[in-house]
Amino acid sequence: MIKETTPLSIVETAEYIKKKDAEIDVKGFIKKFAKLNAKEAKELRKTLQELDFIKMDDKHISKIIDILPTNKEELNKIFVDMGLDENETNKILDETKKFK
Fold it and tell me: What is the pLDDT of residue 24?
């Protein structure tokens, strides 16, 4: 039975699996796709949460960490269910660009 779900980025998933001593070796997969290390991912998550945008939830933040969008078009692919205004878009992109 699933008691709780929490959206995680790829790199945060690696940390969770490591803590839970999972049998599955996913390091290769994660290294192939992760763009940030765990410390950077946590820092970016905290920064994005502090923006406190109503439209942005944990699922969006996890995808932003995984993809690290650099332009409006890439960011809009994450927010397919709603549109961001120009201010929100610029603030999110400003933060992700710090991690490139």
Answer: 59
**pTM of full prediction above 0.70:** yes
Segment 63-83, tens digit of pLDDT: 999 999 999 999 999 998 888
**Residue 23, token pair as written in the block:** 């049998």
**CA distances in angstroms from 91 to 29, 58, 97, 98, listed in the order given:** 30, 17, 10, 11
pLDDT, residue 87, reads 96
Distance CA 26, CA 32 (A): 10
The span from the CA of 14 to the CA of 22, in Å, is: 10
Q: Which tokens is 59 given?
A: 């699922």
Residues 75/92, Cβ–Cβ less than 8 Å = yes
Going from the C-alpha of 62 to that of each of 21, 36, 68, 87, the distances in angstroms are 22, 12, 10, 20
Q: 68 is written with which tokens?
A: 């690290």
Burial of 30 (0-12, 13-18, 19+ CB in 10 A): middle
